[in-house]
Amino acid sequence: MQFIIMTFGDRSGLEGRSKGWVLEMLAFLQGIDEELEASGELVEQRSLADPSEGKTVHMDAGLPYTANEPFVAPARSLSGYWVVEVVDEARALEIATEVTVFLQDSVEVRQVLEERTVD
User: Fold this and answer.
1) Would you tell me which CATH number, out of the four given (3.30.70.1060, 3.10.180.10, 3.40.50.10960, 3.30.200.20), belongs to the domain 2-49+75-111?
2) DSSP notation for 66-92
3) How large a percentage of the chain has pLDDT more than 70?
4) What is the reported pLDDT for 68?
């Protein structure tokens, strides 16, 4: 089963954090990547640019336009994710719990649906 484990936030989440904490966080996240790679559970991992660099395409009067803004509040924007192949949801939640405990912030877990074909 595949699951996506998503983290959220923007640069403001680092305010008040020491340089040491930031370095520890980066080492922790790299450790998670290495652990998942070694176990064969890692499908993909990505970090995203800060939401302040995001753009949203909207519709107005039937015409699309681009706004220089993220879709949701920057502090709640997707900041990164792992796609993991695990035996069950419990394992995906175990990985997410490790991240939540370290970051002291919420992490979302969702199953990746199987590829569908059109007959």
Assistant:
1) 3.30.70.1060
2) EESS-SS-GGGSEEEEEEEE-SSHHHH
3) 97
4) 84
Please determine, for residue 72, whether its predicted confidence score (pLDDT) is greater than 90.
no
E strand or H helix that includes residue 2: strand 2-8
Distance (Å, whole) CA 96 – CA 41? 13
Q: DSSP per residue over 11-57, as a string?
A: GGGGTT--HHHHHHHHHHHHHHHHHHHHHT-EEEEEE---GGG--EE
Question: Binning pLDDT at 50, 70 and 90, where does residue 49 land?
Answer: confident
Residues in the chain: 119
